[in-house]
Amino acid sequence: MDLRPTLRGRIVTLEPLSGRHAPGLREAAVDPKVWTWMITTDAEEWIRRALAATDMYHFAVLRDDTVIGSTSYLNVIPEHRRLEIGNTWNASSAWGTGANTEAKYLLLGYAFEELAMHRVEFKTDAKNERARAALAALPAEFEGIHRKHMVVRGGERRDSAWYAVIDDDWPEVKASLERRIEAKA
Fold it and tell me: Does the reported pTM lie above 0.90?
């Protein structure tokens, strides 16, 4: 099961994260707003952990060969045909450009059409209204709040909002994402 393919779209390309992406990640990460809802607020710590990770499959998100952020497959459970898409962030200059929409489209498409997953999960800080609106717009199904689910940003307790797309939903979600990407491309 290849969980680190290069995925190319019209707006972005997702490449397996490597050390060569680190300078671009640092540049994309300069706006503190990017880190408001992440597990850590330290870009250097995030980059160091991402490059060392063995249980997550990180991608660099590129637009016009410039690194604008990152996204990941994580919590991969092959025997249950499920995985999570998350740990996603983009430079604030990429917000609203369709970059995140297409990145989700590429990752979901690969998960359902190549990996034959039955379920793709997403979780976000329950207070992160921007991310929750984006997940609802996929559309991903809201499945509830896990209270005090994680410890983040130096000790803060986080409630997590969970969403999912299942294989039965994928044709509708795919069509929705294609319409949104077409409008941005």
Answer: yes
Number of Cβ within a 10 Å radius of residue 165:
25
d(CA 149, CA 157): 7
In CATH, the number for domain 7-184 is 3.40.630.30
The secondary structure element, H or E, covering residue 151 is strand 141-152
State whether residue 119 is helix, strand or coil: strand
Using one digit for the tens of pLDDT, what is the confidence trace for 120-174? 999 999 999 999 999 999 999 999 999 999 898 888 899 999 999 999 999 999 9
Residue 159 backbone dihedrals phi, psi, to 5 degrees: -85, 140
- Give dist(CA 48, CA 58) in Å, integer: 12
Distance of CA 18 to the CA centre of its chain: 17
- Closest-CA residue to 165 (of 108, 81, 89): 108
Q: Rg (Cα) of the chain, in Å, rounded?
A: 15
